[in-house]
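Hi R.,

Here's the chain you asked about this morning:
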Amino acid sequence: MIVTELALRYRALNDYSLELTREQFNTQYIVWPISEKLNPQHSRLLKKWMYKAVANATLDELSYNYFAVKLCPLGLSGPNCDQDCNPKHGLSDRDGRCICSSTKWTGADCSIEVKEDLNTYPAWMVGLCYSFFGINTLAVLVCASWIYWQRNTQQVKVWQPFFLNLVLLGCLVSSASIIPAVQQSSEGNDNVPACMVFPWLFSVGFSITFGSLFAKIRRVYILFRAAATMNRVTVTVKETFLIVCAITSVDVLICMIWSIVDPLSWQRTVTRTDLFGDPLESVGHCTSNHWQIWVAIIAFWHLILMIFASVLCYKTRNIDIRFSESKCKCLDYACRCRTLL
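And the predicted structure, written out as tokens:
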């Protein structure tokens, strides 16, 4: 009986035209304590009825009519068993409701597959990041145009237009790291080549910006220190530019070694599954085996630059306001802040 029933159920899963109920075809028995000493006649009559009821299936009929739970056939549900219930992903309960076998499937008939929640960035957030990058690019272009327009004025010449443009270039490169930062895998695959682009743009952009400021502060410091001792010294733009290149080359070298030895790659981690192990929710991110070490190296290098620059800023705090990096000057009863970038 068991083998035949399993075979029928297997066929029912592959042939929806077959109707197979989920009851067990077992003969029902009643266990009743009978004392022949008290009433032998009643005992003999009851035993006779029981034997006959087993033989003509009366007990099976009584059990089915009054005790058995009447379930819908496989593939059906509803109070009248006239609604669909996908036999591969759900079964009807005693009330006719189609109960899905796992949270991977939903719907009235358990035929709608629940898509994996990839936890991707919403479209409005991606658009906002692109908008910020566009605003920053526009600001850089406006500032570069103003520097070119005022390039022959005395104050702009003192501010050294070449290094001002380098600062703008560094800001543009570092802010461009927003673009690879919002790249993501929206289809569940692992193909996001922009992972390693982010540290390149951020580190190189920072080194260009801060390296230009550092080199310019150093140049001013050397010139005014020599003037204080009545010595003649020359610090060329080429020499200062080489310092910027040297600072930037350190970041380039670190990122290059990182890209070769332990590059960032896109990985997706499953955070929630159903009872069969199918993924319901996952999180994607850029990672590598030792990314913390590389980030710490870059952060340490940038910290050293900031410490040296802070020392130079402190030493040059008393120089003329025209060469100062950040001071305020009052002109015509109004205080105007002039910041040398």
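The chain has ten helices and ten strands.

Let me know if you need anything else.
M.
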